[in-house]
Amino acid sequence: MVLILSQAGVVIESHGAEPTRVYIFAGQSNMVGADAKVEEIREFPSFRNLESPRDDVLFSYRLGNGDEVSKGWVPLSPLTAFGPELTFADEVSKRVSFPIAIIKSAVGGTTIAYDWNPDAPDRGQKLYPKTLQWIRDSLTELTNRDIEYKLEGVMWHQGENDMLDRMLYPDYAAGLNRLIAQLRADLDAPDLEWYLGEVSEKGIWGMDHRANLGAFRAQQQQVLDGDPRTHFVPTSHLAFDVMGSGQPHYHFGTQGQLQMGQAFAKAYLRRIDALPTPSDRAHPGKLPLAEKGNVRVFVLAGQRNMEGEDAHVAELAQLEDQKKLTQPQSDILFRYTLGGGVAASTRWEPLAPVSDLGNFGPELSFGAKLRSRLPNEDGIAIVKFTHSGAQGPDWAPNGNLPTSRQLYQKFITFLRTSVKDLEDRGYAVAVEGVFWHTGENDTYFGPYAQSNAKWNQQWIEQLRTDLGNPSIPCFITEQHKSSPWVNIDRVNADLRDMALRMPGVTIIATDPLSHGRRHFGTLGTVQLGEAMADAFLSQR
């Protein structure tokens, strides 16, 4: 039986005994949706259907100090700003048969020590009692409308303001545990699941507050380790806005908010076993290479533009001369770890777009151009290791604090494992070159900008030592002159000076390439891959 209930423009389908699942979204400015702009949604091909209200999803919200408050339940739609609720609802509704409803209470610039603390009624903005009352009132309205419901989970993104205060963050785990326990008790929902969104390393927090952020992340982990009904939602691989001043933002912005909703949805759907089984893209059995032949291995590594932020597969499919790159290149082997390991292959796959975010990097055009120019009897394998939220210290060969952000050893281990797999299959393997796009996340911050070339020299020297080949060619692509970051000219000049001192290091100019407002974008990323291939081929 399907019962249609309509009130205030909201249509809910009750599928037999299936109650409406209610999700609570709470936190501070990145949960509110600060700097996410409704008019920008159409810039991103995967999300162009989300500007319109959804009559099939109930929405009740209280934002700021009552700055935006719904009159009861309304259809889900973007507000002045929007948070992860839009894409969360979109993703979840595709995978489940039950109706869903979202209660949202979020205020920017708030702490768990004071504002969200159930035991501090006279300090801060008293958000706990206000939020509790808002949730109770919203649930009562469902009951009054004869809509059966079930509390399903809390989506929580908060902590930046606690993290900034060294007097507060040592007590964050205790404060969050207190909040979780109290809300479960007050809602009579002892099994209520919590999903903790990561405070992104890609934002300004990851730079001049690096130590604080590391300590805060350890506090979050204490909660996760101690409560099996809490779940971590990684976000540092998601898009993050750039300020007009050319520095990392405090907020995810439009694209990042849309992606964050998908990240929350993925974590939830995984828990309820509603995620589709990923397709197995790996080559079955024998690899498409000449028996015991030569394999040229090319390594791609780096941050935002190497990962492919703002390069969209959906747009690539609309480019007449490049749309073939959306299809697997079955004669090129591909292994990858993206976003610091959020997406990773376990076996060799055909070169193809692989990002769950619908993005792609320069590897597609890079591989295609190499294949068109190198002898057919030589195999080509691309190993890609990227983390768009990383910074120079994360790639330090000797490690750097916090330990959770150290990448170099993971990088070299992944490369060695990939090479060994080919060697164990009987192939003659040669690492032909390492390609790196210099760190966008380092360029803005003065101390990092002045160390960028030094850090690149360190990982190049260590990689050559670890692979036992002091002459491995290394190619570094410059920051584009249209990039929004500051210190670009200085960073590029330092890299060119470094290359003069280091044999086998080539700097690739990128100013002739297409570039968008933040990153290379779809066409520019294709051109970036071709420029990388040209730089290698010109030295043969």
Overview of the structural elements:
The protein has 2 domains: 2-271, 3-Layer(aba) Sandwich (Rossmann fold); 302-537, SGNH hydrolase (Rossmann fold, 3-Layer(aba) Sandwich), CATH 3.40.50.1110. The protein is 34% helix and 20% strand. The chain has helices at 29-32, 85-95, 127-144, 160-164, 172-186, 205-208, 210-226, 253-271, 304-307, 313-316, 363-373, 408-424, 440-443, 446-449, 452-466, 488-501, 521-537, and strands spanning 2-7, 10-15, 20-27, 54-63, 68-69, 74-76, 100-106, 149-157, 194-197, 230-233, 294-302, 329-338, 343-344, 349-351, 379-386, 428-437, 474-477, 505-508. Helix 5 packs across helix 7 (210-226) and helix 15 (452-466) packs parallel to helix 16. The radius of gyration is 25 Å and the shape is globular.
Q: Which terms summarize this structure?
A:
540 residues, alpha/beta, Rossmann fold, 2 domains, eight-stranded mixed beta sheet, 17 helices, 20% strand, globular, disordered N terminus
Give the SSE map.
Blueprint (H helix, E strand, L loop, with lengths): L1 E6 L2 E6 L4 E8 L1 H4 L21 E10 L4 E2 L4 E3 L8 H11 L4 E7 L20 H18 L4 E9 L2 H5 L7 H15 L7 E4 L7 H4 L1 H17 L3 E4 L19 H19 L22 E9 L1 H4 L5 H4 L12 E10 L4 E2 L4 E3 L11 H11 L5 E8 L21 H17 L3 E10 L2 H4 L2 H4 L2 H15 L7 E4 L10 H14 L3 E4 L12 H17 L3
Parallel strand pairs: 3-7, 3-8, 4-7, 8-9, 9-10, 11-15, 11-16, 12-15, 16-17, 17-18
Antiparallel strand pairs: 1-2, 4-5, 4-6, 12-13, 12-14
Helix pairs in contact: 2-8, 5-7, 11-17, 15-16
